Amino acid sequence: MSYVLIIGAKSDIAKATAREYAKHGYDLYLAARNVSELETFANDITIRFDRKVKCIELDILDYISHKSIYDGLEEKPLGIISAVGYLGELSETQKIIDTNYTGVVHFINIIANDFEQRKSGFIVAISSVAGDRGRKSNYIYGSAKAALTTYLSGLRNRLYAANVHVLTVKPGFVATKMTEGMDLPKKLTAKPEDVATDIYKAQQNGKNVLYTKWIWKWIMLIIKTIPEFQFKKMNL
User: What per-residue confidence (pLDDT) applies to 180?
Assistant: First the structure.
């Protein structure tokens, strides 16, 4: 086994995914801002799963640092998982777009170029069902995730010939710190551990797009078929 690089590693989904990959024998790079906050978590994985875990300081909005951070890794990863995400308020338009799209794309591009030359590797990025159709409650966040989904689709086509797998993950509601305080429907809300298991299985099986929970694939299919003149009246 070798290293998997997880960026946005302080999120609940990222931590659950880190445990899932460590459980299956992978060593980990955990990258995030204020990485000292991850040290206890990293030590727990090392003890629990007997895996190597290294914490990397990464600010996804500090574009100039991205290449030097990746080039500075002692061993290049065999895969990357992006769990970067920021919901934010409408007044934070620039931060929402840069965090969910621009910064992630800039960093992944560096890795994609490396994987393409090596002709191996996998790229997993968490988008969202919010990107499948714009809604008034989160359309800035949703539009950034829609852009990320489109980017990943193009990247998947570009890297196919180089034997590099690209997986787009579209969670629905997930019980995390980011959604804490929201009134989420229990039957449609996943636990981070469930999402992590789904990600691992989908990546290992070479799946292109993952909706999690699975029912969101059909929910969004219905939502996308509602005519615009009706959809705009639905107060979503």
Answer: 63
For 3-231, CATH number out of 1.10.1780.10, 3.20.20.370, 3.90.550.10, 3.40.50.720 equals 3.40.50.720
> How big is the chain by its Cα radius of gyration, in Å?
17
Rounded CA separation 147/83 (Å): 16
**Separation of CA 31 from chain center:** 13
149 pLDDT more than 80: yes
CA nearest to 219, candidates 144, 129, 148, 128: 129
Would you mind telling me the total number of residues written for the chain in this entry? 236
Torsion of the alpha carbons at 160, 166, 170 and 175, rounded to the nearest 10: 170
Residue matched to tokens 């996308």: 224
Percent of the chain residues topping a pLDDT of 70: 96
Segment 197-232, tens digit of pLDDT:
999 999 999 999 999 999 999 999 999 999 998 988
* Helix boundaries (H) for 24-137: 39-49, 63-71, 93-97, 103-118
3-state secondary structure string across 127-153: CCHHHCCCCCCCHHHHHHHHHHHHHHH
Q: Are 8 and 14 in contact (CB under 8 A)?
A: yes
pLDDT in tens, 46-105: 999 999 999 999 999 999 999 999 999 999 999 999 999 999 888 999 999 999 999 999
Contact 79, 71 (CB under 8 A): no
Cβ-defined contacts of 48-51 (< 8 Å, 24+):
48/19, 48/22, 49/19, 49/22, 49/23, 51/22, 51/25, 51/26, 51/27
